[in-house]
Amino acid sequence: MMIQPPRMKQLLRRMIDIYSPSGKENDLLDYLKGYLKRRGVPAVAQPVDESRYNLLVLPDTDDIQLALIGHLDTVYAYDIEDYGFNLEGDQIRGLGSADMKSGCAAMIESFLEFQGARNFQAPVALCLVVGEEENGDGADKLTDDYHFPWAIVGEPTDLIPCLSCYGYMEIQMASTGKRVHASIAGSRQNATETLLHMMLRVSQFLREKHPEVVYNFRDLHSNPSGFSSPDRCEAWLDIHAPADAPIGEIVTALEEVSLGGLSPVPEGDMNFHIETIDAGYRLPEKGSMVETLKTTYEGRSIPWETAEFRSHSDANQLWTAGIKPVVLGPGRLEDAHAIDESISFDQVCRSAEIYLELMQRLFV
Fold this sequence. Notes:
Elements: H1 5-17, H2 26-38, E1 44-47, E2 53-57, E3 66-71, E4 86-88, E5 91-93, H3 97-116, E6 124-129, H4 137-145, E7 150-153, E8 162-165, E9 167-176, H5 182-185, H6 191-209, E10 214-222, E11 232-241, H7 247-259, E12 269-278, E13 281-282, H8 288-299, E14 307-309, H9 314-320, E15 324-327, E16 342-344, H10 345-363
Parallel strand pairs: 3-6, 3-7, 7-15, 8-14
Antiparallel strand pairs: 1-2, 2-6, 4-5, 5-16, 8-13, 9-11, 9-12, 10-11
Helix pairs in contact: 1-3, 3-10, 6-7, 8-10
Protein backbone atom coordinates (compact mmCIF):
# COMPACT_ATOMS: atom_id res chain seq x y z
CA MET A 1 0.00 0.00 0.00
CA MET A 2 1.49 3.31 -1.13
CA ILE A 3 -0.11 6.70 -1.64
CA GLN A 4 -0.25 8.24 -5.11
CA PRO A 5 0.95 11.88 -4.90
CA PRO A 6 -0.20 12.90 -8.43
CA ARG A 7 -3.72 11.66 -7.72
CA MET A 8 -3.78 13.44 -4.37
CA LYS A 9 -2.47 16.70 -5.84
CA GLN A 10 -5.20 16.67 -8.48
CA LEU A 11 -7.79 15.99 -5.80
CA LEU A 12 -6.49 18.83 -3.66
CA ARG A 13 -6.50 21.18 -6.65
CA ARG A 14 -10.18 20.45 -7.27
CA MET A 15 -11.07 20.75 -3.59
CA ILE A 16 -9.45 24.18 -3.22
CA ASP A 17 -11.02 25.44 -6.45
CA ILE A 18 -14.50 24.56 -5.14
CA TYR A 19 -15.48 27.42 -2.84
CA SER A 20 -16.98 25.90 0.32
CA PRO A 21 -17.43 28.37 3.19
CA SER A 22 -19.45 27.26 6.21
CA GLY A 23 -23.06 26.69 5.22
CA LYS A 24 -22.23 26.33 1.53
CA GLU A 25 -20.30 23.07 1.43
CA ASN A 26 -22.68 21.11 -0.84
CA ASP A 27 -20.79 21.58 -4.12
CA LEU A 28 -17.66 20.12 -2.56
CA LEU A 29 -19.61 17.35 -0.82
CA ASP A 30 -21.27 16.32 -4.07
CA TYR A 31 -17.92 16.29 -5.87
CA LEU A 32 -16.26 14.13 -3.21
CA LYS A 33 -19.18 11.73 -3.06
CA GLY A 34 -18.78 11.15 -6.80
CA TYR A 35 -14.99 10.99 -6.49
CA LEU A 36 -15.19 8.20 -3.92
CA LYS A 37 -17.90 6.34 -5.83
CA ARG A 38 -15.80 6.30 -9.01
CA ARG A 39 -13.07 4.60 -7.01
CA GLY A 40 -15.35 1.94 -5.62
CA VAL A 41 -15.72 3.47 -2.16
CA PRO A 42 -19.38 4.07 -1.28
CA ALA A 43 -19.99 7.02 1.01
CA VAL A 44 -23.02 7.67 3.21
CA ALA A 45 -24.64 11.10 3.37
CA GLN A 46 -25.50 11.87 6.99
CA PRO A 47 -28.01 14.77 7.05
CA VAL A 48 -26.99 17.72 9.21
CA ASP A 49 -29.82 20.09 8.30
CA GLU A 50 -32.38 20.38 5.51
CA SER A 51 -29.72 21.04 2.85
CA ARG A 52 -26.31 19.96 4.21
CA TYR A 53 -24.75 16.65 5.15
CA ASN A 54 -21.63 14.93 6.42
CA LEU A 55 -19.94 12.45 4.10
CA LEU A 56 -19.02 9.17 5.84
CA VAL A 57 -17.23 6.03 4.71
CA LEU A 58 -18.04 3.32 7.24
CA PRO A 59 -16.61 -0.17 7.71
CA ASP A 60 -18.69 -3.24 6.87
CA THR A 61 -18.83 -3.97 10.57
CA ASP A 62 -20.70 -1.70 12.98
CA ASP A 63 -17.63 -1.57 15.21
CA ILE A 64 -15.61 1.63 14.67
CA GLN A 65 -12.37 1.89 16.64
CA LEU A 66 -10.80 4.85 14.83
CA ALA A 67 -12.25 7.69 12.76
CA LEU A 68 -10.26 9.98 10.47
CA ILE A 69 -12.09 13.30 10.72
CA GLY A 70 -11.71 16.43 8.63
CA HIS A 71 -13.91 19.45 8.01
CA LEU A 72 -14.61 20.56 4.46
CA ASP A 73 -15.75 24.12 5.14
CA THR A 74 -13.53 27.20 5.11
CA VAL A 75 -13.92 30.73 6.35
CA TYR A 76 -15.52 33.14 3.87
CA ALA A 77 -13.24 34.75 1.30
CA TYR A 78 -14.32 38.28 2.30
CA ASP A 79 -11.65 40.51 0.69
CA ILE A 80 -9.61 37.66 -0.82
CA GLU A 81 -9.91 38.01 -4.59
CA ASP A 82 -7.85 35.00 -5.68
CA TYR A 83 -8.80 32.12 -3.40
CA GLY A 84 -8.30 29.26 -5.87
CA PHE A 85 -5.48 26.73 -6.23
CA ASN A 86 -2.01 28.10 -7.02
CA LEU A 87 1.18 26.04 -7.18
CA GLU A 88 4.61 27.61 -6.71
CA GLY A 89 7.25 24.90 -6.47
CA ASP A 90 6.35 22.80 -3.43
CA GLN A 91 3.97 25.44 -2.04
CA ILE A 92 0.24 25.18 -2.65
CA ARG A 93 -1.71 28.38 -2.06
CA GLY A 94 -5.44 28.89 -1.82
CA LEU A 95 -8.26 29.34 0.66
CA GLY A 96 -8.51 26.27 2.87
CA SER A 97 -5.16 24.85 1.72
CA ALA A 98 -3.90 24.64 5.31
CA ASP A 99 -7.23 24.67 7.15
CA MET A 100 -7.95 21.99 6.26
CA LYS A 101 -8.52 20.77 2.73
CA SER A 102 -4.98 19.37 2.61
CA GLY A 103 -5.66 17.33 5.73
CA CYS A 104 -8.89 16.06 4.16
CA ALA A 105 -7.15 15.19 0.88
CA ALA A 106 -4.44 13.28 2.79
CA MET A 107 -7.08 11.36 4.72
CA ILE A 108 -9.02 10.53 1.56
CA GLU A 109 -5.87 9.36 -0.25
CA SER A 110 -4.69 7.20 2.65
CA PHE A 111 -8.17 5.73 3.05
CA LEU A 112 -8.41 4.91 -0.67
CA GLU A 113 -5.15 2.97 -0.48
CA PHE A 114 -6.20 1.22 2.70
CA GLN A 115 -9.59 0.24 1.25
CA GLY A 116 -7.93 -0.71 -2.04
CA ALA A 117 -6.12 -3.48 -0.17
CA ARG A 118 -9.58 -4.89 0.66
CA ASN A 119 -9.52 -3.90 4.31
CA PHE A 120 -13.29 -3.46 4.33
CA GLN A 121 -13.67 -5.18 7.70
CA ALA A 122 -11.15 -2.97 9.45
CA PRO A 123 -12.88 -0.89 12.15
CA VAL A 124 -11.86 2.48 10.75
CA ALA A 125 -14.08 5.22 9.30
CA LEU A 126 -13.52 8.32 7.17
CA CYS A 127 -15.69 11.26 8.28
CA LEU A 128 -15.79 14.48 6.25
CA VAL A 129 -17.89 16.97 8.17
CA VAL A 130 -19.33 20.44 7.70
CA GLY A 131 -19.67 23.58 9.77
CA GLU A 132 -16.47 23.54 11.84
CA GLU A 133 -15.63 27.18 11.13
CA GLU A 134 -19.00 28.31 12.48
CA ASN A 135 -20.82 26.24 15.09
CA GLY A 136 -19.55 22.69 14.60
CA ASP A 137 -22.97 21.33 13.67
CA GLY A 138 -21.39 18.62 11.52
CA ALA A 139 -19.36 17.22 14.41
CA ASP A 140 -22.40 17.44 16.69
CA LYS A 141 -24.46 15.37 14.27
CA LEU A 142 -21.65 12.85 13.82
CA THR A 143 -21.38 12.21 17.57
CA ASP A 144 -25.16 12.04 17.91
CA ASP A 145 -25.29 8.99 15.63
CA TYR A 146 -21.89 7.31 16.06
CA HIS A 147 -19.44 6.59 18.83
CA PHE A 148 -15.84 5.40 18.65
CA PRO A 149 -12.99 5.49 21.15
CA TRP A 150 -10.35 7.28 19.06
CA ALA A 151 -10.21 9.93 16.34
CA ILE A 152 -7.52 11.63 14.28
CA VAL A 153 -8.52 15.22 13.49
CA GLY A 154 -6.53 16.57 10.55
CA GLU A 155 -6.18 20.22 11.61
CA PRO A 156 -2.85 21.92 10.76
CA THR A 157 -0.29 20.94 13.42
CA ASP A 158 2.88 20.86 11.28
CA LEU A 159 2.68 17.05 11.67
CA ILE A 160 3.21 17.34 15.44
CA PRO A 161 0.71 15.11 17.29
CA CYS A 162 -1.39 17.19 19.69
CA LEU A 163 -2.67 15.15 22.62
CA SER A 164 -4.21 18.19 24.26
CA CYS A 165 -6.28 21.09 23.03
CA TYR A 166 -7.09 24.59 24.26
CA GLY A 167 -10.56 25.36 25.52
CA TYR A 168 -12.59 28.08 23.83
CA MET A 169 -15.08 30.76 24.81
CA GLU A 170 -17.03 33.00 22.44
CA ILE A 171 -18.61 36.04 24.09
CA GLN A 172 -20.84 38.80 22.75
CA MET A 173 -20.42 42.20 24.38
CA ALA A 174 -22.92 44.95 23.63
CA SER A 175 -24.09 48.35 24.77
CA THR A 176 -27.37 50.01 23.90
CA GLY A 177 -28.59 53.57 24.28
CA LYS A 178 -30.72 56.28 22.78
CA ARG A 179 -29.99 57.69 19.36
CA VAL A 180 -29.37 61.45 19.49
CA HIS A 181 -28.19 64.09 17.04
CA ALA A 182 -24.42 64.07 16.54
CA SER A 183 -24.12 67.76 17.50
CA ILE A 184 -25.16 66.99 21.08
CA ALA A 185 -23.67 63.49 21.36
CA GLY A 186 -20.50 64.84 22.99
CA SER A 187 -22.43 66.04 26.02
CA ARG A 188 -23.59 62.54 26.92
CA GLN A 189 -22.20 59.04 27.05
CA ASN A 190 -23.02 56.95 23.99
CA ALA A 191 -23.23 53.22 23.25
CA THR A 192 -19.94 53.09 21.34
CA GLU A 193 -17.95 54.76 24.09
CA THR A 194 -19.46 52.47 26.72
CA LEU A 195 -18.52 49.37 24.75
CA LEU A 196 -14.97 50.61 24.21
CA HIS A 197 -14.58 51.06 27.97
CA MET A 198 -15.85 47.50 28.49
CA MET A 199 -13.33 46.16 25.98
CA LEU A 200 -10.42 48.05 27.54
CA ARG A 201 -11.29 46.73 31.00
CA VAL A 202 -11.41 43.16 29.67
CA SER A 203 -8.07 43.57 27.86
CA GLN A 204 -6.36 44.91 30.96
CA PHE A 205 -7.77 42.14 33.15
CA LEU A 206 -6.68 39.34 30.81
CA ARG A 207 -3.20 40.76 30.28
CA GLU A 208 -2.58 41.22 34.00
CA LYS A 209 -4.40 38.26 35.55
CA HIS A 210 -4.41 35.59 32.84
CA PRO A 211 -1.48 36.05 30.45
CA GLU A 212 -1.74 32.36 29.57
CA VAL A 213 -4.92 32.89 27.53
CA VAL A 214 -5.14 34.21 23.98
CA TYR A 215 -7.92 36.70 23.35
CA ASN A 216 -9.17 38.43 20.24
CA PHE A 217 -11.80 41.13 19.67
CA ARG A 218 -13.56 40.94 16.30
CA ASP A 219 -16.60 42.12 14.37
CA LEU A 220 -16.87 45.45 16.20
CA HIS A 221 -19.72 47.47 14.74
CA SER A 222 -22.63 49.75 15.58
CA ASN A 223 -26.08 50.17 14.14
CA PRO A 224 -26.03 52.57 11.15
CA SER A 225 -27.09 55.92 12.55
CA GLY A 226 -26.14 58.60 10.06
CA PHE A 227 -25.34 61.96 11.66
CA SER A 228 -26.16 60.76 15.17
CA SER A 229 -24.85 58.54 17.96
CA PRO A 230 -25.76 54.89 17.47
CA ASP A 231 -28.34 53.17 19.67
CA ARG A 232 -26.38 49.88 19.74
CA CYS A 233 -22.76 48.81 19.49
CA GLU A 234 -21.43 45.26 19.81
CA ALA A 235 -18.25 43.22 19.54
CA TRP A 236 -17.34 39.54 19.77
CA LEU A 237 -14.58 38.24 22.01
CA ASP A 238 -12.72 34.97 21.34
CA ILE A 239 -10.76 33.42 24.21
CA HIS A 240 -8.51 30.37 23.83
CA ALA A 241 -7.23 28.96 27.10
CA PRO A 242 -4.89 26.05 27.95
CA ALA A 243 -6.58 22.81 28.92
CA ASP A 244 -5.86 23.29 32.64
CA ALA A 245 -6.96 26.94 32.76
CA PRO A 246 -9.87 27.68 35.17
CA ILE A 247 -12.38 28.65 32.49
CA GLY A 248 -15.27 28.93 34.93
CA GLU A 249 -13.39 31.38 37.12
CA ILE A 250 -12.16 33.37 34.13
CA VAL A 251 -15.56 33.84 32.55
CA THR A 252 -17.17 34.81 35.88
CA ALA A 253 -14.47 37.39 36.52
CA LEU A 254 -14.74 38.70 32.95
CA GLU A 255 -18.44 39.43 33.36
CA GLU A 256 -17.82 41.30 36.61
CA VAL A 257 -14.93 43.26 35.12
CA SER A 258 -16.74 44.21 31.90
CA LEU A 259 -19.99 45.32 33.55
CA GLY A 260 -18.84 46.52 36.95
CA GLY A 261 -18.10 50.17 37.65
CA LEU A 262 -19.56 51.46 34.39
CA SER A 263 -22.72 53.49 34.05
CA PRO A 264 -24.90 52.41 31.14
CA VAL A 265 -25.97 54.90 28.53
CA PRO A 266 -29.08 56.82 29.64
CA GLU A 267 -32.09 54.79 28.55
CA GLY A 268 -29.69 52.00 27.60
CA ASP A 269 -28.09 48.81 28.88
CA MET A 270 -24.91 46.74 28.81
CA ASN A 271 -24.82 43.04 27.90
CA PHE A 272 -22.30 40.22 28.34
CA HIS A 273 -23.54 37.04 26.67
CA ILE A 274 -21.62 33.75 26.56
CA GLU A 275 -22.39 32.16 23.21
CA THR A 276 -20.01 29.17 23.33
CA ILE A 277 -17.89 27.33 25.89
CA ASP A 278 -15.89 24.33 24.66
CA ALA A 279 -13.78 22.53 27.23
CA GLY A 280 -10.12 21.85 26.58
CA TYR A 281 -8.61 18.45 27.30
CA ARG A 282 -5.32 16.68 27.89
CA LEU A 283 -4.71 13.02 26.96
CA PRO A 284 -2.03 10.90 28.62
CA GLU A 285 0.71 9.59 26.36
CA LYS A 286 -0.48 6.01 26.50
CA GLY A 287 -3.03 3.68 24.94
CA SER A 288 -2.72 1.48 21.88
CA MET A 289 -3.49 4.25 19.41
CA VAL A 290 -0.95 6.72 20.79
CA GLU A 291 1.69 4.02 21.24
CA THR A 292 1.17 2.81 17.66
CA LEU A 293 1.41 6.38 16.38
CA LYS A 294 4.67 6.81 18.29
CA THR A 295 6.01 3.59 16.75
CA THR A 296 5.03 4.90 13.30
CA TYR A 297 7.02 8.08 13.88
CA GLU A 298 10.03 6.21 15.20
CA GLY A 299 9.95 3.85 12.22
CA ARG A 300 10.05 6.86 9.90
CA SER A 301 12.85 8.52 11.87
CA ILE A 302 10.56 11.42 12.73
CA PRO A 303 11.34 12.88 16.16
CA TRP A 304 8.51 12.11 18.55
CA GLU A 305 7.25 15.23 20.25
CA THR A 306 3.75 16.23 21.26
CA ALA A 307 2.16 19.65 21.62
CA GLU A 308 -1.03 21.39 22.67
CA PHE A 309 -3.33 22.52 19.86
CA ARG A 310 -3.88 26.21 20.54
CA SER A 311 -7.22 26.60 18.79
CA HIS A 312 -10.64 25.09 19.23
CA SER A 313 -11.79 22.57 16.64
CA ASP A 314 -14.11 19.61 16.20
CA ALA A 315 -11.77 17.85 18.62
CA ASN A 316 -13.33 19.78 21.52
CA GLN A 317 -16.79 18.49 20.65
CA LEU A 318 -15.50 14.96 20.16
CA TRP A 319 -13.93 15.08 23.61
CA THR A 320 -17.20 16.27 25.14
CA ALA A 321 -18.90 13.29 23.48
CA GLY A 322 -16.49 10.85 25.15
CA ILE A 323 -14.12 10.35 22.21
CA LYS A 324 -10.33 10.67 22.52
CA PRO A 325 -9.08 12.91 19.68
CA VAL A 326 -5.51 13.33 18.53
CA VAL A 327 -5.13 16.47 16.41
CA LEU A 328 -2.60 15.75 13.66
CA GLY A 329 -2.38 17.20 10.19
CA PRO A 330 -0.25 18.97 7.60
CA GLY A 331 0.25 22.72 7.56
CA ARG A 332 0.77 25.36 10.21
CA LEU A 333 -1.91 27.02 12.29
CA GLU A 334 -0.13 30.33 11.64
CA ASP A 335 -1.02 30.04 7.94
CA ALA A 336 -4.70 29.23 8.48
CA HIS A 337 -7.26 31.96 7.69
CA ALA A 338 -4.50 34.11 6.19
CA ILE A 339 -4.85 35.98 2.90
CA ASP A 340 -1.81 34.11 1.55
CA GLU A 341 -2.74 30.73 3.09
CA SER A 342 -0.39 28.02 1.86
CA ILE A 343 1.02 24.58 2.59
CA SER A 344 3.92 22.36 1.56
CA PHE A 345 2.75 19.54 -0.68
CA ASP A 346 5.62 17.38 0.55
CA GLN A 347 4.14 17.65 4.03
CA VAL A 348 0.69 16.72 2.70
CA CYS A 349 2.24 13.56 1.25
CA ARG A 350 3.99 12.74 4.52
CA SER A 351 0.75 13.16 6.45
CA ALA A 352 -1.03 10.74 4.10
CA GLU A 353 1.78 8.22 4.59
CA ILE A 354 1.49 8.56 8.39
CA TYR A 355 -2.29 8.05 8.31
CA LEU A 356 -1.90 5.01 6.05
CA GLU A 357 0.84 3.39 8.12
CA LEU A 358 -1.12 4.02 11.32
CA MET A 359 -4.12 2.14 9.90
CA GLN A 360 -1.87 -0.67 8.69
CA ARG A 361 -0.20 -1.11 12.06
CA LEU A 362 -3.49 -1.00 13.96
CA PHE A 363 -5.74 -3.12 11.78
CA VAL A 364 -3.79 -5.32 9.34
